[in-house]
Amino acid sequence: MSIPKFRAAIIVFVVGFALGASVFLASRLFVRSVLNNDAMLAAEELAADLGIGRSIDTSAALSSVIRYTYFDLDGAVIESASSGTDGEGSQLKVPEGVNPSEIVRDGGAFIDESSPLLGFMGTNTPAVKRLVVPVTTDGELIGSLLVVVDQSRALASLTRAFSVVAIVTVGMAVLAVVAVAFVVTRGRGFRQRKNFDPTKVPQDALTGVATRAGLIEILDDVMERAGESDHQVVLMVIDLDRFSAVNGIWGHAIGDTVLQMAAGRLQNIATDTFGVARISGDEFAVIVESAETRSMQELAGRVREVISAPFEVDGASIMLSASIGGALYPINADNGEMLFRAASNALAKAKMQGRNALAVFDTEMKQRMQRHEALERDLRSAIERNEFVVYYQPQIELASGRLRGYEALVRWERPGEGILSPRDFLSVAEETGLILPIGNWVLRKACQDAAEWLEADSVAVNLSSAQFRSQEIDKTIAGVLQDTGLAPDRLEIEVPENLFLDGAQDVMETLNRIKALGVRIAMDDFGCGYAGLASLAQFPFDKIKIDRSFVGQLTEDADVAAIVTSIVSLGRSISVDVTAEGVETKEQVTLLRAAGCNIVQGFRFGAPQRGAAVAANAAQMEAENLHAADMQDPVERAG
Ligand code: C2E
Ligand code: MG
Ligand code: MG
Q1: Which CATH architecture does the domain made up of 373-630 adopt?
Q2: Is the model's pTM score more than 0.85?
Q3: pLDDT in tens, 582-607
Q4: Which of 336, 342, 338 minimizes the C-alpha distance to 359?
Q5: Which of 389, 462, 467 to mutate to test the pocket of ligand 1 (most atoms within 8 A of CB)?
């Protein structure tokens, strides 16, 4: 983990303080050098006057010079003057045996200076300097001048100016430090203020442990603290194998008790009792935080142990096993949501391996997850850039070869990657809700095309169950019909069987409202889901579409042929059209005709095509269709 935030704040503070202090010191050194320079200039000016034989006018420029003494080459005093205020007598005392003119033979030198630094710091030492400079005529030394300067006033005003500079600089440095420290530690401060309480997260009513949402909150908190102390966090997502059988055999009351017991047993494995969550019906999560690296195998072994111990409820002894998906912080994720998704991904793999299996999130899964996320990003920009197109596939009346309608099938024309089929992106679009904008666009486009140029009775549009869940799809359809001017009976909606799996009542009401608009409703892919027959009984469909997996096996498998024949006669008995999808061969056509199927759709009669191609082919379609239906040799018409 990175340096803890408070340590970073201290470092920033020290750096800031050092910066302020150095500006402070540098300003003092600057004052000192300015004053030294000034004193030297004053002395040299006097010496220059003497050098050209001019006498010194103390009353004029030399306000800071309080005394001077002019020596000849032998060190004898030629001239001396004093402002008379320093009380040290009018003549400077030069130490016995010292000739100032000898000192300056190689240039001027300070022989004494009171400390401007001390003065600057507030001592009342006067800023007095004694210095000796050479006196020359035409470059030749003729004597020396000893000058005493008092720079108290200059020092005082410079001190004031630089005090302001120093105070402002230090103030700004402190402000900068405070600002940086605030930004750096804000997250931490927020957490502390938030005072996270894991017992306050959303709880599952049945078991009392956290819900999925609660798990993410707890994970975020645990991971943040683990990061600060370099701990590891293991998340296991656990699915009880075949739990629905428990409900089926023993009843829901006993099933509920088993779930409560399972949650309790898992709490013994989690680091804290709140480290367990119930994700969905029979899916749990367990958080283990530890300083040392714990082996996933060992932890999963403990989960298996507690789950495989018999659940004794009301005289029943129930045996269970668990599939486990595991992920690790900090290796696999850096926030709760990601860690959970990683472990769930691993669980999906464990379930595919059969019961009682463990799968650990690995790089391959990570890559798949990343591809999934990348696809989601690309889908979003594809929507913005209008990269979708609608293809149309003809639906033919078998008896007459007449073109009845087209099915609208979306394609993604992805720059650089060609044309993508819905199989490549639909599941991601459904999971992320992006199916709503995409599906609405397809609906509008198909209705527009049908109103403007598609020469057929009807256009069929596929809707996903996601489109029924999260919007008032009937109002959307009504709006699109109104905007495009398409007659409602020319629109057919194809819905998947899985629509009836959950929230059947709401779905039924929505379907009824759509039907009330005058729109026809078809059940797509009939026969591959679980709810087919049940939903036929619940809702008056206008059409059943036999899934192409049945049509594909029609000529190879007598049982499949029998099933298809039954579906067709079922459809006739409740007076709905039956369309066979994926019709490719002459043999299939013959069998479907014998079974009484009235509409066919498939490569034999035309592959899905782009709008312009559909328009070009429409005219010659009918004659060919009859031919295609009856032609002896199977012809591949796949485009
Ligand atoms: P579907 O509704 O069952 O559509 C029929 C699929 O079978 C189409 O695949 C079509 O290209 C393919 N197909 C047609 N004739 C033949 C054939 O003779 N042989 C074979 N092997 N396949 C044939 P596509 O276009 O890839 O669409 C796949 C599925 O994606 C569709 O299945 C439909 O469920 C869904 N889908 C397509 N467009 C949309 C859409 O706009 N919205 C929604 N929600 N789903 C769509
Ligand atoms: Mg369809
Ligand atoms: Mg279908």
Answers
A1: Alpha-Beta Barrel (3.20)
A2: no
A3: 999 999 999 999 999 999 999 998 99
A4: 342
A5: 462
